[in-house]
Amino acid sequence: MKIEHIAMYVNDLEKARDFFVKYLDGTSNDGYYNASTGFRSFFISFDDGARLEIMNKPEMDDPKKPLNRTGYVHLAFSVGSREKVDDLTARLKQDGYEVISGPRTTGDGYYESCIIGIEGNQIELTV
Fold first, then answer.
1. Is pLDDT of 17 > 80?
2. pTM of the entire structure?
3. Sign of the CA dihedral running 64, 68, 74, 76
4. What is d(CA 2, CA 7) in angstroms, rounded to the nearest whole number?
5. What is the mean pLDDT of residues 33-53?
6. pLDDT tens digits for 71-97?
7. May I ask the CATH architecture of the domain 6-56?
8. Which CATH superfamily is domain 74-126 in?
9. Alpha-carbon distance 125 to 117, whole Å?
10. Other CB atoms closer than 10 Å to residue 32's CB: what's the count?
11. Is the four-CA dihedral 55, 62, 14, 90 of positive or negative sign?
12. Which helix (H) or strand (E) holds 91?
């Protein structure tokens, strides 16, 4: 069994799509729109077969996203090497994204950094 895809609602669908394509090498489909409900989505595909569905619909609730909460906390992306973690973290920081940890080796042996990415969602970059 495998996870087929993960989905997240966002306020700015195009900006979210561009983030995952620009920084994490995702490839977007042409999108979907349901005129009767106003629902819109894009599927972002990654080289290893993983897919992320980003979605939007009218009148969504958008509560604050504290880091220490229950539920889904972050998306982790393996970028291939320590150097790539360092480089992408620096690039995201230079482009105005908040780095909240790392790059560093964690107590359980991961080399990672964490940033606050699109719309306050935490993104982990790891080897």
1. yes
2. 0.91
3. positive
4. 15
5. 95
6. 788 899 999 999 999 999 999 999 999
7. Roll (3.10)
8. 2,3-Dihydroxybiphenyl 1,2-Dioxygenase, domain 1 (3.10.180.10)
9. 11
10. 12
11. negative
12. helix 82-94
